[in-house]
Amino acid sequence: MAARELPQVSVQVDASAFGGGLDLTSPPGMAKSGTARFATNYEAEFGGGYRRLGGFERFSGRPSPHAAIYTLLEASAGFTDLVVGDAVNGLTSGATAVVIYVTATRIGVTKIVGGPFVNEVIREGVIARGTVTETQPVIDGFLDNVISEAAAGLYRTDIVAPAGAGPIRGVAVLNSVVYCWRGSGANLVTYKQGATGWTVVPLFSQVSFTGGSAVYAEGSSLVQGAATATVKRVVLESGTFGAGTAAGRLIIDPVAGVFAAGAAVGGGACVLAGAAAVISVLDGGRVQTFAFNFTASLNAERLYCCDGVNAEFEFDGTVLVPITTGMGAIRATQVIAHKNHLFYLYRGSLQHSSIGNPYQWSAVTGAAELGTGDVGTGLLVVSGSESSAALMVICRDSVFVLYGTAAAGSEPWDFKKISDQAGGQANAAQEIAGVHMTFDRDGFNRFRPTQSFGNFEYESVSRNIDPLVRNASVKCSVLVRNKSRYRCFFSDGLFVSATFTGKSFEWMPCDYGMVIECAVGGEINGFYRVFYGGFNGMVYEADVGRSFDGLEVEAGLRLSSQSQRSPLTLKQYRHAEVQIEAESAFEI
What we know:
By secondary structure, the chain is mainly β. The protein is built from two helices and 46 strands. Helix content is 3%, strand content 43%. The two termini are 45 Å apart.
C-alpha cells in the first residue's frame, strides 16, 4: 500500500498585540484580539502590553526594604557556626554587618557599616568564623532573588506602623515629606516620616483676640503680665491691625502661665478674649487634603484639610491651624483651592473663603455660598487659562461646574448643572489627561468639555468591566501620574486600574490582599511616588519592591479566545513566540 501523504495546507503567521484590558461583556470569540477574559494583578501599559502589578512595601521614612544592598562573601575553606541574624565584622576592614544568608562556603550580609569587606577574616565578636577568598562571586538571578528578599525582609522589620489604633485616616505629601493621621484613644494624631520612623507632630494652643493694633510676627512673644508664649501663627479673621480692629486667633507654644481676658503686648498688641486652649482633633473622620500656596512667598505651600468630624484646618508640617468657617458643628468632607479661594463642600453647600485669605469667611470680605440641592462628593479643577479654568462639583446624583470668578471687576460666579443623571461616589473623582473620572453606582463615567463653552459631555468608560464593579462601594482613588493611570479602591479590597491610552481607558482588576483606606500621589525630591493608608494602620509605598510587603504576588492572566481570521477553519499551531520583559529572574 502506498504511503499516505499529509494534505498540503497553507501555513499562516498571525500576531496579536496584548492590550485592551479586561473584557467581561463581549460574547466568546467576539472580543478584540489581545484583551483579557480573566486577569488579576496585571495592569495595562501605556503603549501596549500588560505588566504585572508592581510590589508595595511598608513606609515610615526609615530605609526602604527594596533599596537594601547586600554583599555575598565566599570562603573556600568554609564558614563555621554562623546563622541568619548574627552580627559579623571584618578583621582588616573594620566593616560590620548582619548575616541574612548562609551556606557552607558563602554568607550574604546587609546593613553594612564601614568597609567594604575585603579578603579578610570574618568574625562574630572576636571569634573568627572564616576567611573570605572572594567578595561578590558571580551568581544567577534566582539566587539574587533569594538574597535580595532576605535583605529586604531585615529592613522591613524595622518599619512599624504609627502608634495608635484603627486604620490610617489620611496620608499626604507636602514639600517632599509624607504625613499621616491615625487615631489614638479619642484623638486623631498627626505623624511625620523620619529617619527613625513615624514621629508625632505636636498640636499647639490657641487664644482668641480682638482690637489688634500691632501685628505679631511669627516667632515673636505674646506677653500678658507673667504669662508668656511664642507666636506660631497669626489667624486674622476680620478687621486690620492698621485700623486697630484686627480680630482672630493666635496659635502659640510653649505657654508659660495663664492668659486672661485683657490687653496683651510683646511682639505686637491686642486684647485677649480669655485663656489659651490646647488644640485637639478627634478621631473618626477621613482626612482629605489639598496643597496650595496663598502667598507670594516661595516654599509657603500648605495643606488645607477636612475630615467630616473636626473643624477644617490648615497644616504646614509643623503648625496645625483650625479654620472657623461659620458652619458650627457641620463639617466639610471635601476641600480644594480654586481662583485663589479655599473651597469646602458641606453636604449640599459649596462655600469659599475670601480671595487670597483662607482664614476669612465673611460675605463682607468676599466669601460666598452656593447650593447644590444634592449631597456633594467631590471637587475637581477643570484645567484652563486663569480666566477659563472652572471648578467641577460632583454630587451623588448630579454634577455642577462653577465658572467665572469672585474677583472685583470680573464676571461673577456662574454655577451650572451639567448633569442630573450621572453623579459619583465620594473619594472616586480624579482628573487624568484632561478627563474627569468618577464612579457612579453602575460603573465609571468621564466628563470632558465640548467645543461649546460651558458644556460638558459624559459617557460610561467601563462597560467591559461593569459586571465586576456594579454597586461597589468606593474607599478612595489615586492618580498614578507618571504612568498615566487611575486606580480606584473598593471596600472589599478589590481595586481597578485604568490606563489612559490617549483615546480610551483599559481596565484591569487587582487585589493587594487588604483594604486600602486612603491614597495619595506626590513628588518627593523630583520623583512622583504613591502612598497608601491601610485598614491595618500601616502606611505603604506603591510600585516598589518585588513582593506585597514580603508576601508573594499572586497574579494571573488569560486572554480572550481568538479565531485567527476564520472561526470555521480547523487549525494546528506549530510554533508560538511571546515577547516578555522581565525585571528579575523567573520561570515559565
